[in-house]
Design brief:
Structural class: mainly alpha
Distance between the termini: 66 Å
Strand content: under 5%
Radius of gyration: 20 Å
Shape: globular
Number of helices: 10
Length: about 190
């Protein structure tokens, strides 16, 4: 298959449709919601959901994967999904919007998620439970902020690291306190 034929829609589902659908499923939409938005039956969506990753594997140029990432990050702007959101609490939907609009909030929660994993918690689940932000929306925010954060690191590496270290210390303390302290907290040297 040539690259152009690899980009042909599958059962009428374009790569852009597929990418946005994946993002929305990660944000809490059901397969039935996605299929309905795409105007197909669930089995048709499921087959496209199997075939698009196979096409990505066949693409030695990684062009399809690159496009997938771009479309995934723009899922909120996709016309078939722009007004389709999973049921969420008001606070959760506010935080979903905030993480996409506030780079510092995103960066803080990215560190919090990593520290949660270090303390044996499911970081993505912790973010969902504490802030109402599903993994799919978190990943959309990550793709939205990626270029800007890269520029920030290049412009002020030391400042970036200081902010990250401060977030890390904050969440290490929070998770340690929640677990009754760190293992070596009661040892004096």
């Amino acid at each position: 298959m040539s690259e152009n034929s690899l980009l042909e829609p599958i059962h009428g589902i374009t790569l852009e449709d597929y990418s946005a659908a994946c993002a929305k499923i990660g944000s809490g939409l059901s397969e039935a919601d996605v299929a309905k938005a795409l105007g197909v039956e669930v089995p048709v969506w499921q087959e496209a959901n199997l075939l698009w990753p196979e096409r990505m594997k066949q693409d030695s140029t990684f062009h399809i994967v690159t496009l997938f990432g771009q479309y995934f990050g723009a899922a909120d702007k996709h016309p078939k999904f722009s007004n389709l959101k999973p049921a969420a609490s008001t606070e959760g939907s506010g935080n979903v919007e905030k993480i996409k609009a506030d780079k510092d909030f995103y960066q803080e929660l990215e560190v919090a998620r990593q520290v949660a994993y270090e303390y044996g918690l499911d970081g993505a689940q912790w973010i969902l439970d504490k802030y109402g932000i599903p993994l799919g929306d978190f990943q959309i925010a990550a793709s939205l902020w990626s270029d800007q954060i890269h520029q920030d690191i290049q412009a002020n590496y030391q400042g970036y690291n200081q902010r990250q270290d401060a977030y890390r210390a904050k969440y290490q303390q929070l998770f340690a306190d929640a677990q009754g302290g760190n293992v070596a907290d009661d040892i004096d040297f």
